[in-house]
Here is the input.
Amino acid sequence: MSTLANEHIIPLASKVWFNDDMLFVLLTDGREIGVPILWFPRLRKASSEQLNNYRLIGKGIGIHWDELDEDISVEGMLTGKNFH
Here is the structure.
């Protein structure tokens, strides 16, 4: 018998937005997460136009900014690893 607690569900992003200090992501399971932009030097220095020029990669496992040469995984945002 399989239970949800035994399964590793990969969190996927469906939407990204910003305010002055934070990067927010809406996950496909309905959760919203936010992390400080200060964790990402390339994002911190970017214009609003550059920040909003992202694309979801791997069906939502990550976020990519081509112009900024930045990739962020949703799992990394949830765990806080590799950011600060």
